[in-house]
Amino acid sequence: MLYVYCIVNREGWPPEELVELKGVEGLEVYSGSIGHYGYLYSEIDKAGFTEDQIEELSQDIEWLTKNAAVHEQVIEFAQGSADVIPLRLFTIFLTEASICDMIKRENEKFAQIFSDIQGRREWGLKLFINTDHIAIHAKKHPDFIAMEKKMEESTSGATFFIKKRMEKQLEALKEKMSFDIADEIHQAVLEVAAAGKLNKLLSKQTTGSDKPMILNAVYLVDKGSEKEFKEKIDELIKKFVPSGVEFRFSGPWPNYNFCQL
């Protein structure tokens, strides 16, 4: 059985350095090719990667963390000298012939993906907001000020209900202002990226942050434009950090989000 890491768009690939590369569980990494495409794989013991054992391994955080990092390293090695379609953890084929059959079957799809990602790499941007900071700005909003004035002019009996409405209004304004900021930043980054994609916002428990996430985006960037891209991020950091925005910028990564098979 063969554990496959990625498909590469390059004939005669890979370079000689492949002999020094180790894959999952310390296994040797080999290369194969068919037509315009190459691929990297390790030979695995069928008995050690049954469906039940894969399910068990996927629940083993220590094993998963270690081997996911190795899987990523192999893909990043390939990405250093070729355009790459990364494959997910536990992508397994019975034989090289079955890999080649898959590549021939999906040839048109691979050709389109490689056309889209040629000379480009993926970068990630996550944004978090300081809610106390944004609340200060929300309280300066005309709608909130008008409600404050209404409460000051109200009778004591109506004050309780107006206060509750103000609390809801403040939360709504904080949310709107937060996502307006996120959208402004996202649109500015798209100006220097070839493509962008919005992913699902993650919970505080998942991110480990005490601040709510307001943007979870990935961008496909031409290698020749990466300097301009980073400069744009630096410009946005200087502009929005004073407004309570926290930036988490990362990359380059394998193009997982732009290689949907």
Description:
By secondary structure, this protein is of the alpha+beta class. It has 2 domains: 2-118, 2-Layer Sandwich (Alpha-Beta Plaits); 121-258, no CATH class. Helices cover 47% and strands 22% of the residues. It has 9 helices and 9 strands. The chain has helices spanning 51-58, 61-79, 96-105, 107-117, 131-138, 142-153, 156-190, 204-207, 226-240; strands at 2-8, 30-34, 37-43, 84-86, 92-93, 120-129, 195-198, 213-222, 245-253. The strands form 2 sheets. Strands 1, 2, 3, 4 and 5 form a 5-stranded antiparallel sheet that branches. It has a 4-stranded antiparallel sheet with strand order 7-8-6-9. Helix 7 (156-190) runs antiparallel to helix 9 (226-240). The longest helix has 35 residues, at 156-190.
Notable features of this structure?
single chain; 261 residues; alpha+beta; Alpha-Beta Plaits; 2 domains; 5-stranded antiparallel sheet; 4-stranded antiparallel sheet; 9 helices; 9 strands; 22% strand
Distance between the termini: 21 Å
Q: How many extended strands?
A: 9
Radius of gyration: 25 Å
**Secondary-structure class:** alpha+beta
Number of domains: 2
Helix content: 40-55%
User: Main β-sheet, in a few words?
Assistant: 5 strands, antiparallel
The proportion of residues in beta strands is 15-25%
List the helices and strands and how they pair.
Elements: E1 2-8, E2 30-34, E3 37-43, H1 51-58, H2 61-79, E4 84-86, E5 92-93, H3 96-105, H4 107-117, E6 120-129, H5 131-138, H6 142-153, H7 156-190, E7 195-198, H8 204-207, E8 213-222, H9 226-240, E9 245-253
Antiparallel strand pairs: 1-3, 1-4, 1-5, 2-3, 6-8, 6-9, 7-8
